[in-house]
Each structure stands twice: as structure tokens, then as C-alpha cells.
Amino acid sequence: MIVTGLVLAGLAAALHVYIFWLESFAWTTRARAVFGTTADQAAATRELAFNQGFYNLFLAIIAVTGIVLTLLTGASDDPSPAGASLLLAGTGAMTAAAMVLLVSSPDKRRAAVVQGTLPLLAVVAVTAALLS
């Protein structure tokens, strides 16, 4: 089950790196189509999006660090406490952020589901592996 959690956490991290790129570097170009903003809205929120993009990058880095530590210590039956902790911290925060988006902006339900499904499944898989 830990391998499943590692794969899901890796996919969630990759998605959050993509979101980082969109928000931090493509906000006034490609991201406008993804987020449905006008040129004026994108220009007005560029600095906020740039900062928010880095939050997504940092969550991905935490999850990837957890993956690496888990793999370095033998991912089989007994993942390292540090690796598991970082996996759960990164993917748990990703899940929580998706829930905040869902609750605060119900019209962005699809984005919240896309952003939160992989990390939620990773949390479930890693927790199941730790409890077994």
C-alpha cells in the first residue's frame, strides 16, 4: 500500500508543480484560459497569483522529500517516520487547500476536486500502510 501512496503523492506533487507554473509564470497568458480570467483580472492579481504559486511548489517539495526519504529507507513494509510524516504533511495540506477552495468558492468545485483527489488518495494509502 505504501507504493500506491508514493505514486499518488508523486502525481499530486507533479500537479502542484504545474499549478505553480501556471500561477507564477503563465498567469497572464496560458493560465487565463485555465482559470477563466480576463486580461484585466490577470493583470490585477498577478502578484497574488505569483505568491500563491510558490505555496503550491512548496507543498510539492514537501511531498517529494517524503517520497525520497521513504524510498531511501526502504519503502516496503516499514516506511521511515520522517518520510511518512513529510508525505502526510504535504499531501494533507494539499487536500486541506482543496477543501478550502471547495467551501469558499463552490463554483470552483471542479478545480477543487482536480486539486484534491490525488493528495486525498495518497493520504488514505499512506495511512493504511502505516496502520497495517
TrEMBL record:
Pfam families: DUF1304. It comes from the Bacteria. The chain crosses the membrane at residues 6-22, 54-76, 82-104, 111-131. Keywords: Membrane, Transmembrane, Transmembrane helix. PANTHER family: BLL0914 PROTEIN (PTHR38446:SF1). This is DUF1304 domain-containing protein. It comes from Isoptericola sediminis.
